[in-house]
Amino acid sequence: QVGQVFLYFQWDSLLLEAGFLAVLVAPLRLLKWRSTAWRAHDGVTFWLVRWLLFRLMFASGVVKLTSRCPTWWGLTALTYHYETQCIPTPGAWFAHQLPVWFQKFSVVATYVIEIAVPLLFFAPIRRLRLFAFYSQVLLQVLIILTGNYNFFNMLTIVLAFSLLDEEHVGRWLGRSKRRHRRCSAAAWPPSLRSLLSALLELSTYGLLIYWTIQCFSLEINWEKRLLDSKVAFTYHEFTTWLRAVTLPLVGLGFLSLSWEIISAMYRCACIRGCFWKLWATLQWAVFATAAVGMFAISLVPFTYIDYESNGKLWPGIHQMFSAVERFQVVNSYGLFRRMTGVGGRPEVVLEGSYDKQTWT
Question: Where exactly are the transmembrane stretches of this chain (predicted)?
Answer without folding.
Answer: 14-31, 43-63, 105-125, 137-164, 241-262, 282-305
